[in-house]
Amino acid sequence: MKPDPAPANIRISDEDFQKFREFFYRKTGIQFDTSKRYFVDKRLVERIEATDSGSFRSYFTLLRFQASSDEVQLLTNLMTVNETYFFREEYQFQCLVDSLLPEIVARKRDQRAIRIWVVPSSSGEEPYSIAIYLLERWPGINEWDVEIVASDIDTRILARAREGLYSIRSVQHLPAKYLQRYFRRQADGYQICDDLRESVEFTRVNVSERGDTRSYRDFDVIFCRNLLIYFDDVSRKTATETFYDALKPGGFVCLGHSESMSRSSSLYKVRKFPEAIVYQRPLETS
């Protein structure tokens, strides 16, 4: 189906697109190339109309100088892609259970909780998948407390994650027994059970903004899948340094299957496990 054209009286010129692209990159670390031009233009026009700005110039002034930054957040919510489903790239959850957690537990010298950070969280499928995987397939769950923190730059998608309502498509790869055990059937989909909703802490964070991530520390594992592909080399380097600071020595980062840290950072050790390749913050040596 051919998409609806933008209203003829609101035009995003090449110069406007460049201005906006540079502004959005500075705010979020996300860079749109020209192949995303239609996607970007359409959402800009939506917000120009919704705010009665009348033109890109007026709207861009609002974006830059609004004291509350509410419009920047609204536009960020529209510009970020949140396409995911339960048990996506399941081999990494298997790696977590079979390889990463046994190694983490073996070197722990205290009984503090094992901490896992999922960023971006999108609408919650990934952190909830990890919670289900641990409950079902990790014997250590009976001996250790696990904290799961899930973060995203999109406040709208965080609200959806906390609500925990999912379409049939989102849960289609879940084993039927898990669906029955952890979800309630709704009129047009499923809602995840209250115990799991309460087991994940959802927070808003911009991984390109150091002030946002300063309090994120002492994680054992970070899942950051299919985010770095939207970053350029500078933003990718910032993100990898942020994750390094957020990890305990010996902690692990799991990326999407098409992503790599090898070019952007030498901080990490590449670990090849039977299930997956992950990146490890080296253990401190005395």
In words, what does this structure look like?
It is a single chain. With 286 residues, the protein is α/β, with parallel strands linked by helices. It folds into two domains: 14-79, Chemotaxis Receptor Methyltransferase Cher, domain 1, CATH 1.10.155; 90-281, 3-Layer(aba) Sandwich (Rossmann fold). It is built from eleven helices and ten strands. It has a seven-stranded mixed β-sheet with strand order 6-2-1-7-8-10-9. A three-stranded antiparallel β-sheet has the order 3-5-4. Strand 7 (219-224), helix 11 (233-246) and strand 8 (247-255) form a beta-alpha-beta unit. It is globular and about 60 Å long. The model is unreliable at 1-6 (pLDDT under 50). This is Chemotaxis protein methyltransferase. One of its GO terms (biological process) is methylation. It catalyses: L-glutamyl-[protein] + S-adenosyl-L-methionine = [protein]-L-glutamate 5-O-methyl ester + S-adenosyl-L-homocysteine.
* Rg measurement, Å: 20 Å
Q: Based on the structure given, which CATH architecture of the largest domain is correct?
A: 3-Layer(aba) Sandwich
Low-confidence segments, ≥5 residues, pLDDT <50? Answer: 1-6
Q: If you consult CATH, what is the topology of the largest domain?
A: Rossmann fold
From the spread of the alpha carbons, the general shape counts as globular
Supply the CATH class of the largest domain.
Alpha Beta
Query: Helix proportion of residues, in percent?
Result: 40-55%
Please write the string of helix (H) and strand (E) elements.
HHHHHEHEHEHEEHEHEHEEE
**CATH homologous superfamily identity of the largest domain:** Vaccinia Virus protein VP39
- Amino- and carboxy-terminal Cα gap: 62 Å
Average the pLDDT over all residues and give the rounded result: 90
Helices and strands: which structural class?
Answer: alpha/beta
Compute the number of structural domains: 2
Strand line-up of the largest beta sheet = 6-2-1-7-8-10-9
Give the amount of beta strand, in percent.
Answer: 15-25%
Number of strands: 10
What can be said about the biggest beta sheet?
A: 7 strands, mixed
Helix segment tally:
11
Catalytic activity: L-glutamyl-[protein] + S-adenosyl-L-methionine = [protein]-L-glutamate 5-O-methyl ester + S-adenosyl-L-homocysteine
InterPro entries: Bact_Chemotaxis_MeTrfase, Chemotaxis_MeTrfase_CheR, CheR_C, CheR_MeTrfase, CheR_N, CheR_N_sf, SAM-dependent_MTases_sf
EC number: 2.1.1.80
Protein name: Chemotaxis protein methyltransferase
